[in-house]
Amino acid sequence: MEKLEKALELRKAKYLKRTGSPGNYKYIYREKTGRRRGIEKEIKKAYNWIFKETGNKFEAMVVLDIDGKVVASKLGQENSINIDDIFSSLKDKIFIHNHPSDSSFSDDDILVALTSGMKEMRAVSNKYEYIYRPKKSSRPDIDIVEHFLTHQQEALYNRWRPEVRSGKMTANEANMIHWHELATNFVKKFGGFYERRER
Ligand SMILES: [Zn+2]
Q1: Is a pLDDT exceeding 60 seen at residue 13?
Q2: Residue 16 in this model has a pLDDT that exceeds 80
Q3: How far is CA 22 from CA 4, 8, 26, 90, in A?
Q4: Measured CA distances, 150 to 10, 128, 147 (Å)
Q5: For the segment 165-197, what is each residue's pLDDT rounded down to a tens digit?
C-alpha cells in the first residue's frame, strides 16, 4: 500500500498494474498494450523504408491503418509529397513522412491532418520524430484554423528574423524553433496531442 501511495504521489497511477496475491502484492508500471506496441514497431519499419528509399534527401510517405498494416506508400519531392490521390482515404489512418529539413510539422501538415480526419501524423528526420494527433471530438472550423496559423507564422517570423539578421542564430536554427513553436501553440489553442522526440 505504501508503494501504491508513493506511485499516486508521483501521479503515475494510471500506469500502475498490480500483480501477486494478497499480502504479497507487487506494483509495476503497466506497459503499453500489445496493439500499441505492435503499431510502434510498424511505424519504425516505415521510418526505415523511408530512409532507405530517400536517404532523407527528399520526402516519402507511408500510410498505416489502425492495426499497423501498410495501406499506401509513395515517394515525393524535396519538400513535398502530392497526396491528392489518397487524401480521401486517410480517415483514421496513421500518416508517416520524413522531413529532410529536421524541422517540425508545416502549417500544411497540420491542415491536412485536421481536414482528412487522420488518427495521427508523424514526421521523422535524422534527429527527431514529431507526433501530432488531432483532437478526436469537435474538429475546429478550418477558416479559424487557417487564420490562426497565418497569424502565428507572421508572429514567429517577426520574432526570430532579427536573431537571424544579427547573426545570433542561423536560418536553420530559427526554422527549427519556428515550426516547433507553431505546432506547440496550435495544440495549446485547438487541443490534440503534439510531441517532439529525439531519436
Ligand atoms: Zn510535412
Answers
A1: no
A2: no
A3: 14, 20, 10, 48
A4: 39, 25, 5
A5: 999 999 999 999 999 999 999 999 999 999 999
Identity of the amino acid at 164: V
Residue count of the chain, please give it.
Answer: 199
Distance of CA 132 from the midpoint of ligand 1 (Å): 11
Distance CA 124, CA 187 (A): 19
Q: Which residues surround ligand 1, an ion (CB under 5 A)?
A: 109, 123
Summary count for the chain: helices (H), strands (E): 5, 8
User: How many whole angstroms from 95 Cα to the centroid of ligand 1?
Assistant: 10
Ligand 1 geometric centre to CA of 99 (Å): 6
Is the CB of residue 127 less than 8 Å from the CB of residue 102? yes
- CA dist 159 to 32, 139, 178, Å? 40, 29, 9
Give the SS3 label for residue 69: coil
CA distance 170 to 176: 10
Say which DSSP state 89 is in.
G
What is the average pLDDT across 115-129? 96
The answer to whether residue 103 scores a pLDDT higher than 60 is yes
Phi, psi dihedral angles at 45 (to 5 degrees) = -60, -40
Site of grid cell 505546432: 183
| CA–CA separation, 156 and 182 (whole Å) | 8
